[in-house]
Amino acid sequence: MTGRPFSQVDVFAATALVGNPVAVVHSAEGLSDDTMAAFARWTNLSETTFLLPPTDERADYRLRIFTPGGELPFAGHPTLGSAHAWLQAGGEPAQEGRLVQECGVGLVEVRREAGGLAFAAPALLRSGPVEDEVLAQVRESLGIPATDILATAWVDNGPGWVGVQLASAEAVLALEPDFSRMRGLEVGVIGAHAEGGPADFEVRAFCPDFSVPEDPVTGSLNAGLAVWLTGSGQAPPSYTVRQGTAMGRRGDVRISTDDDGTIWVGGACRTLISGHLKL
Asked: 50, 138, 154, 261: which could join 28 in a potential S-S bond, CB 3.0 to 4.6 Å?
């Protein structure tokens, strides 16, 4: 037995080794929930995914997504990395140029773009103002006064994100969170770069409950932030994000909005490891 095909894909990476890797197990039929969770803990990556046949006839494949701390209903960089791996392995979508992923939040559309893939931002499961007690915990965990925060909102599309807008990218990069005070929260922070910077915005994602204190480059968070900020007029319909700077990465995320209002989150993907997994 040669084992199950396996890929490790660098996502949101303009060049190798600067994005966020995702481990992708192909042909994952027969693996138990416990085995999937154990393998995700073993890889110790932000996410590990498992490709399965769809149960919805509208989908091209089904995806299960695990962090070292448990399963997620949706995540962005695993969506793009797994779509990339599925296509590279010979997957043929029913619709030319687009494919449909089935996952915990339902169906997510992925399309080919120049320089990579993009997924359609799913609807927010929770939006609107952040409660005072939650906001106080956010401020304490980030170690900043209320006056440093321009705006906050729930931007939960599955992982449970709270969005925080600061005045600048420099303020975002200066954060030194106290993760012991952040328990129970997933916090995403965004601030604008000055003109001529590496991108329009800088983003950081803090998610200690997933056993990933800081995620290098985060598709679900950027999708939620885009729904919030473009909808409120605090960001243009199309913009770019740099994420991972504080961790020595250079993740590049592209946000674009179609005429019908669909928001797309895109970036480059490249397979750096391929082989077979024996479980």
From this structure: 50
